[in-house]
Amino acid sequence: DNIPTPGQYFKGKHPDKKKYSRMSEKISWTASMVYKILTSYVYTGATVGHKRKSGGVGSRKTISQKKEDWIIVEGMHEAIVSKEEFELAQAVIRGGEKNPKRNLRHYPLKGLVCCGNCKRALTRRKLRNEGGYFYQCTYSMHDRDTECPVGERYSEAWIEDTAYKAIGQMLTLVEKKAVKEHEISKRRKSAISECADAIRDLQKQYEQLKAVKLRLYEKYTSGSITKAEYLKRKAETDAKMSENEEAIQQGHQRMQELDSEHPCSDERLDAVLGEYQKGEGLTYELAHALISAIYVHGHDSIEIVWKFKDIFADAEI
Ligand SMILES: [Zn+2]
To answer: Which residues are within 8 A (CB) of 87 and not within 5 positions of it... i.e. 6 or more apart?
Structure first.
C-alpha cells in the first residue's frame, strides 16, 4: 500500500537528521516492524513509561523493565486502535508464538553486518547441516524486484575472519602511530627545556645591560667620560637592550606554540589495543569498540566503517 516504514517516515520528516539517513528509498516492511507496532500499547491512546530504567550512576545503559512495572496512563491521546482490537491482536500473536526465547546470545558482530545495497542489517541464520551461521539480506528474500543480492548467503566465519584481520592491520598502524607520537612528544619536551634555557640567558643579559647603562651614567656624572661619549654608548646599550627584549618576546611565543601542540592519545583506543593483544580472537567488545558498520557488497567485497575516524584517516587499508 506504499505505506512508509517508521524509519522512512522519520527520514521524510527530518531529512537533515543523521538517523536513518542511509536508509534505502524503497519501502520494505519486515515482520519484526509489524510485530513492534501490533504489540505497542501506546496506539490505544495510553502513554507507557518506565519501560526501561537507568543502569545506575555513570552508566549509559538502560535496563529493560518487567511489564508489571510499566507505568501506563490511559486516554492521553487519540487512539488509533481500540483496546478490544489491541487485545485481539495479542491473542493472535500468543497463539502463533513458536519460540519466544529467540537467539539472544551476544555474538561478536551483532548489529554490525549490513547489506551493501540497501544498507539494512543482514539477517543472521543458522546453517542447517553445518554448525555455522550465515548472513542474508531479508529484502532480497521477499522482494524479487530488488538490486539486493537475491538468494546470496554470506558465511559468518568469512565476515568475522575478514573483520578480525582488518582490525589487526588497523591496530598495527595505530601502534606505529603511538610510537611515532611518543618520539614527537619526547622531542617537544626537550625543545621546551631548550627554549626555557634560552629565555633565562636572555633575561640575564638584559639585567647586565641595565647595569652597564647605570655605570655609564655614573661615569658621565663623575666626569670620567664626555657627554658625547656617554650619549653614544648609551644609545648603543639601548639598541642592544631592545634587541634583547625582542628575542625574549620571540622565546615566549615559541614556548606558547610548543605548549599548544597536544600529543594525540586516546585512552579508549589503548584499552582496545589491550583487548586485541589478549589474543582471544574477535570478541563483541573488540568489534564494537572499533567498528560502526560492516557492509557486505559481495563474496569478495566487504566495507568496514570504523569508529575513530580521525585516527584512521591517514591509514587507509
Ligand atoms: Zn539489501
So the answer is: none
CA of 146 to the centre of ligand 1 (A): 8
**pLDDT range class, residue 316, cuts 50, 70, 90:** very low
Q: For residue 165, what pLDDT band results from cuts at 50, 70 and 90?
A: very high
The values of phi and psi at residue 73, to 5°, are: -115, 115
Asked if residue 225 belongs to a domain, the reply is yes
- Report how far ligand 1's centroid is from the alpha carbon of 285 (Å): 26
Q: For residue 209, tell me if it sits in a domain.
A: yes
**Listed residue (81, 18, 70) closest to 48, CA to CA:** 70
Range of the domain at 220: 184-265
Q: How far is the CA of 89 from the centre of ligand 1 (A)?
A: 30
Please give the tally of structural domains in the chain: 1
Region 143-152: mean pLDDT is 78
Q: How far is the CA of 40 from the centre of ligand 1 (A)?
A: 27
Answer for the pair 74, 45: CB distance below 8 angstroms, yes or no. Answer: yes
CA of 304 to the centre of ligand 1 (A): 16
d(C-alpha 165, C-alpha 60), whole Å = 30
| Cα 282 to ligand 1 centre (Å) | 25
- In the predicted model, what is the mean pLDDT of residues 145-154? 83
Q: What is the pLDDT of residue 266?
A: 60
Instruction: Answer whether residue 195 is part of any domain.
Output: yes
Rounded CA-CA distance 311/171 in Å is 11
Q: What angle do CA 133, 123, 283 make, to 5 degrees?
A: 55
Q: Whole-number mean pLDDT of the chain?
A: 83
Centre of ligand 1 from the C-alpha of residue 313, in Å: 28
End-to-end CA distance of the chain: 44
The pLDDT value given to residue 103: 47
106 is a domain residue: no
Report pLDDT digits (tens) over 62-91: 777 777 777 777 777 778 888 888 888 888
